[in-house]
Inverse folding.
């Protein structure tokens, strides 16, 4: 009986060991296989893996990778440089340097009313006129360009009165000097260094008068009684290579003639000995009237 009992105990131990091994093998298998849905008999096989139930899900292929979009980008590129400032048009010029006209005479007469132009109008827009215009522009908050723009002209007209013809076309800046006794007979160009005027006199009567300037102390205009011995309407100096329009020669190379420099700079300059006239219209008319042989008197 004892032997039978021992045999039964050994058999039970072997069976228990076999069952433990089967259960451990099942754990290992479940670690590598997916768990399937279990039916009603899933627990009846002891330690065996149940047969997987038929799958009810539909197999699908992996979703394709989306293709790059072909729609153009609407993002605007950032500017690559500094934006240019808008172009500002320059104000239109009504009249400016170099002009010679009645409008310039009116401008000069109006500036003279304000004490900005200290001489008689000449009609020529030179450096003296430009300086007076700049002064006016500076006093009234305008761009001091020296040229008369529309705004400058409008402002000037609002501050001055319409100049008379006598104001625009005065005979001379300075009063004509008393005639020298040598100028009282015949046809005479009577030129006074004191008043800086030239009077065209016929038989003691002044026909016309104009402003003149003379040579410097190093090239003085000669004084005395002379006569016109040559005339040249479009003369150019062979020594200084400068224009001497309406030249009427009376002593060597000295002549009465128009001077653009005198018209522009006034008495700030001087001639090389000639008698300069700054009114082109007056000297042109005088040139047509003077004859070869007419007397010239230069005096103090």
């Amino acid at each position: 009986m004892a032997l039978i009992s021992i045999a039964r105990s050994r058999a039970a131990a072997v069976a228990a060991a076999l069952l433990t091994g089967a259960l451990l093998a099942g754990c290992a298998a479940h670690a590598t296989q997916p768990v399937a849905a279990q039916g009603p008999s899933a627990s009846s096989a002891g330690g065996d893996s149940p047969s997987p139930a038929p799958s009810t899900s539909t197999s699908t292929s992996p979703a394709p990778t989306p293709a790059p979009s072909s729609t153009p980008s609407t993002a605007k590129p950032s500017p690559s440089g500094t934006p240019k400032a808008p172009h500002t048009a320059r104000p239109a010029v009504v009249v400016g340097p170099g002009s010679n006209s009645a409008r310039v005479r009116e401008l000069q007469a109006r500036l003279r009313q304000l004490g900005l132009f200290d001489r008689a109008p000449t009609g020529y827009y030179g450096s003296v006129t430009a300086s007076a215009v700049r002064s006016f522009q500076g006093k009234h908050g305008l761009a001091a360009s020296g040229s008369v723009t529309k705004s400058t002209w409008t402002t000037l007209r609002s501050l001055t009165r319409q100049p008379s013809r006598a104001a625009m076309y005065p005979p001379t800046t300075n009063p004509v000097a008393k005639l020298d006794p040598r100028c009282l007979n015949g046809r005479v160009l009577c030129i006074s260094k004191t008043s800086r005027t030239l009077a065209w006199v016929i038989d003691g009567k002044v026909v016309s008068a104009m402003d003149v300037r003379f040579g410097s102390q190093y090239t003085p205009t000669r004084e005395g009684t002379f006569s016109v011995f040559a005339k040249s309407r479009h003369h150019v100096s062979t020594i200084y290579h400068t224009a001497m329009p309406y030249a009427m020669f009376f002593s060597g190379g000295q002549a009465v003639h128009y001077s653009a420099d005198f018209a522009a700079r006034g008495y700030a300059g001087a001639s090389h000995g000639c008698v300069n006239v700054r009114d082109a219209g007056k000297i042109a008319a005088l040139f047509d009237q003077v004859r070869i042989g007419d007397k010239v008197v230069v005096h103090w």
User: Anything to note?
Assistant: Residues 109 and 206 are 25 Å apart (CA to CA). Residues 13-64, 68-73 have pLDDT under 50 and may be disordered.
